[in-house]
Batch of 2 targets.
Target 1
Amino acid sequence: MAIKYFPEPFRIKVVEPLRMLTAEERAAKIAEAHYNVFYLRGEDCYIDLLTDSGTNAMSQEQWAGIMRGDEAYAGASSYYKLLDAGKDIFQYGYIQPVHQGRAAEKVMFPLLLGKGKFAISNMFFDTTRAHVELTGARCIDCVVEAAKDPARRVPFKGNMDVARLKKLIAEHGADNIGMIVMTITNNSAGGQPVSMQNMREVAEVARANGILLNIDAARYAENAFFVQRDEPGYAQKSIKDIIREMFSYADTFTMSAKKDTIVNIGGLLGVKDGNSPLILKIKAACISYEGFFTYGGLAGRDLEALAIGLYEGIDNDYLRYRIGQIEYLASRLDDAGIGYQSPVGGHGVFVDARAMFPHIPYNEYPGQVLAIELYKEAGIRSCDIGSYMLGNDPDTGTQLKADFEFTRLAIPRRVYTQAHIDIMAEALIEIKKRAHTIKRGYRITWEPPILRHFQAHLEPIAKEAAGKVYPAAAQ
């Protein structure tokens, strides 16, 4: 039975009109988009769950801040407001604004990684993986085994496998590990949180081996909420205090602020030691890639909105609503017997497309199949988090097999209502009824050499092509 919907801690002041295309129009649109949801126009999507990054609704205070933004090239008052907020919440000596999370990775990762180096994570998301590989280094995922079983309901499935982490360091040599990355929450594993105990244990391993520990902090506030709610000893601690403890175990953080700080653009990079020699290198790289370090590729108005959003995103009432909305959708899927990464994580529901289409192999991309069916069914844009997104081995060029075949329904913050959530559930229920009639998946006809899922072209595999082996897609 579906749980009670948690009421919104706000009321709506401005609305954006939506329109639903006909089923025939949707089928034509996805075909024109080469069966890649990234090529769809936003206006052709009735409900857009492609990402929760930058798609959030800002508050009246943030919009007021937009008008107060100081557009000075250097030393703007909006920069210092952001600096104060960042230092207050994270307790780091240095805070660097950038235009988004991948910019933080572009600025910092080449300073720590290179050919012959490895980076180990509880799980890399696609753009983070790409920025590691662009330096010449290689990624190793080290999530706990429980995360690989979507039906297994245990807390903190985003955790690092500490025993395996130690073995990997011993195998490759501590000097060859450029960094350890803790992704909170663990996006690729289904938005699953990381426990404070696990963070503490990983920090001990990093310190013992002299390896820098970085937090991929895109959804740090949602992670803190799960710690407060589910980890013994934290129920009486504030979200801010939990964040401060979590970040105290790391040396640096990179953040897409387009998620938990509820803004449309922005990112942060933090260094705990305010006297670290890394800071001068970060400033120099930022000036080259992003702009002067006091604006980091952002307008003053964006700095202002980000400073306000840092505090709004850690409000308990907001976070209870935020997680409650996701849990309501998950409970409706429970009632319908639809599998997902459970218990549900923070920023969306990761539907188990492998369970929905057990007859479709990983190299025909069941996660992408479900994403396309969702669009055709109800105009819902989602995305694959599976083998299609994972891509090819950077050394051999062969298709990698993902641990999961998910279709992610990433819910933008403060945007959709209960009625929209119900439409999502009902669309999935309808697709499940006819899942057995969808016999084959998709093949890639063209792909770029990196981050292919943003740009690749696909086509349906015809029934008569069963058993045919396709050559590698053109690079």
Target 2
Amino acid sequence: MALSDLLQRVAPGRPSSTTVRAVWNGEVLAESDEVVVLEGNHYFPHESLREEFFRSSSHTSVCPWKGKASYLTVEVAGQRNEAAAWLYPNPSLPARKIKDRVAFWRGVKIEKA
């Protein structure tokens, strides 16, 4: 498979036309109709996050094609969900559509609004 074919398969991401929200521990963490779905993950614009629920995390990881990910810890009503959100501050060129966007895991539910 040619590199251009591979990038077309995995890189573009598709914008959502439906409002979706990220919910954990009964609180909406983020809500937007401008998410980018990539590899099954919903990447929310940073400005859609409710900042009061997020704390910095020292956790990082590396994706072979997207680059280095940084993580955020979610805290709601005294409950912490360590490294439950991630972002790519400087993604690779093929993953540029997720720059300044945050995705979730570890029990954070993605729901249609």
